[in-house]
Amino acid sequence: MPIVENEGETVEVDLTEEEIKKIKSLLGRDPYITEWGMFDVMGSEHCSYKSSRPKLKLFEPAEENYDYVLAGPGQDAGVVDIGDDYCIAFRIESHNHPSAIEPYHGAATGIGGIIRDILCMGMRPIALLDPLRFGRLKNNSHSQWLLKYVVKGIADYGNCTGIPTIGGEVEFDHSFENNCLVNVACIGVGKVEDLAPSRASKPGDYAVLMGNSTGRDGIHGVTFASRTLTEQSESDRPAVQIADPFSKKLIIEATVEAVKTGYIRGLKDLGGGGLSCASSELTGDGGTGIEFDVNKVFTREPNMTPFEIMLSESQERMMFIVKAEGLETILEIFKKYETPYAVLGKINNSKLLRVKNADKIVVELDPTLLSDFPVIIREEKRPEFLNDLINQKTPERTLKFDGIIYRLIASENICSKEWIYRQYDHEVGVRSVVKCGDGDSGVLRIIGTNKFISGSAGCNSKHCFLDPYEGAKGAVVEIGCNIVSNGLKPIAMVNCCNFGNPEKPTSFWYFSECVKGMADSIKFFNIPCVGGNVSFYNEDEVLQKVIKPTPIIMLLGYIEGQENIITLPFKKAGNPIFLIGETKNELGGSEYHSVIYNIEGGTPPKVNLDSTKRTWDFLLEVNKKGYIRSVHDVNKGGFLITILEMSFPNELGADLNLYDCFDKDLTSEQFLFSESVGRFIIEVDADKIKEFIALIEKNKLYFKEIGVIIEEMQIKIKRLEENFNLDIMIAKNLFNSTLPRIMEGDM
Amino acid sequence: MNIRIAVIQFPGSNCDRDATHVLNNVIGIQADLIWHTNFKERKYDGCILPGGFSFGDYLRGGIIAAHSPAVKEAEIMLKDGRPVLGICNGFQILTEAEFLPGALLRNNTLKFECKWVHIRVENNETAFSNQMKKKEIMDIPIAHSEGRYFYDNLKELYDNDQIVFKYVSKEGLLNEESNPNGSFDNIAGVCNLERNCVGLMPHPERASEEILSPFKNTHGIKLFNSMVNFIKSKVI
Question: In B, which residues are within 8 Å of A430 by CB distance?
Fold first, then answer.
């Protein structure tokens, strides 16, 4: 990496020679050493989105096109209006690199950061979700170590701050073995009047830094996150910040109380890039300026240089822009919660960020220079190996169907994740209406109203690996199905793009195709994209492994009326079971292929957006009419796995007659194990079956009545090439015991 | 009469608003959220120490909060017979303050455990269980990592009838499987000798509304109703 200097001091920067030249010419002089540090951080991929920005333009402007979007991409969190003066903020972010080398603090500070993003919109954080990716667990102590401490990091932080973790998803795949993915999402609620922009728009306001002291931890965390992992990455451990959930809890309460006074004009958290990022974004976006002395910043250790103070990424800090007349009131609140603070200075109209160290100027520049980093147009190329992979054939089946299904239900990607979510307090806040394990999404009530919201996040990395465009569409559909499965309507999306090194054309092609897939599908569904995060450089240089492309989709659901909430467990024997949506020959990237044959290829699912949209509308309608009793969308492992999961909670069985239930071109195994997206298993009220069928036919949806719920604890599968029975207690035991056996036992 | 209850907010409490919500909106009595240094007992008929991580659970759960001025105020309330309830972290505070016997150790699972359990009423003559039947089984959730009840003189607890709740199975069986954290004798909650102070690890405020219960009941509300009844009957 190039080394730059000023007045005899030198620093290594992660910038190209071209960027260095450009910075000098924009500034008209050589930057001071602290400025170099700031350019370095703000120019990192993590802060500047310099590779991804051209592609992210594919998402239509949410605030312009959707009247209920109050804040869209570019803000700390997306915010949507849900009526009666209530609004919901939500965002998702990655914390992959820190978690890969220090799973506990890496994951915990990830939670800390995403909470601050919600908080600095002026909203109270009320829920967390966390999609995770690790290497295969069995007989792999490294993967087990990562899982154990990532989960503990999330649990300790979320539980202590009193924010329930209401959902998430986990995938295990060898490509994530060293570069695990830790994505964290947070949802917040508040009143529209409390929305705080991340802007310092009025000269005369005070800039107040509040929270923990500034230390030497986490300096250059974002530049570290913008590189691939190497053997040296272990020595980057000081770039990982230390989590302090207790301080965060006080900061949450102090911030919510401060916002309620009406004296907060702007608010920004200190995350990546620390003080340099917060002060430049607040003034840059506000069209104002600020001058302050770094000595006003309270530090954790003596003799910190201005460079270190401006670039430290110490956790649990917020910058408040306070109306002059309210300063004293706000400071009183901070005193009550015993959170340290410093009034840094006044906002002025200089349009300059000027930082001094006593009499010496250490930073003096136009703050917009830092936030408007030039983009880089990257090359894209489809990998050549894909054709062979997609053409891979399913090997000849030697196992019986029941044996295959028992193996699938016990497999790492399908088995119960209870071992994980038991460690999360998922009920604190008394809002959790559909809890972990009861539905495809986490549903929360908004206390004091009859409004309900839900969140679900995930994607299928294996599908995206084979076809990133269709895979990303499939992710939007799958997450949307999760929302619809609980009776809510998807109203807004955020995403977290996890990819390899964008400087490599094949990695960038995956990113580009996934963005296209996401953008096309949400446009079709009329769902605004209100925010996102891009994490590149998820590669392990030691093993030469790139992660499977992982465009995590998070959707927010909304519905009014408790009667509309529906869950996944089968409710009553005698009720008929329907499979909605067409099953196609799409075994590519399926769990069947990977668990039974250890292959990754085949034809991946293609998405039919039109039939999906009509299915969603239909389901929400029949649910409102009260025709259906339980819903679960078909996901990994195929529809029999879905039926088993529905049968476990109330220990009810099913009698399935699969004759004439699928296309004649399909083999039985394709029908049973394809992971075609956009399908649902539905329990229909036996008394409403006529009305249900009439409506489904009217909507011209593809459907089959496949069987009926029975008391007997068996799934009986008839009229396939072989009849077979699945014992619910055996399957349930396999489903529940896999993770505990691996994590607590010696596998 | 106008009953007024204080819900104490320690730095790090996080079930404070939940308990206040149940008292205000579900039961319909006045409950105030009071910052721990501002709490004055004379205004209140009872007080609740809520769940959470007071002072970050640094050192160990509840010990720093046990030295808060609010706990001194609570002691005055207890002495003149007013009810004091400790839920989860509040229970830990009450044992650390030695208002209740015993201690709460790390779960024997060595993990945080968030799930619904079943508890059986062992003593229905306390300020917080007088609206329950003896041996009644209640569905209620837990969420803690330090909830393993320990006391070195269990005989004393039995002799004085200080055990209020025990973890049992759905059917009411007292066994190892139904004990979520390794508590001695499956103990989930205890009371003081005077019966006006109760602490328990499960969260009644999370089991007071049907919409939140996987069992579609409101068993937790009986604790709060018992408190109201206790306060009323004392006045009469």
Answer: 18, 21-22, 205-206, 209, 212
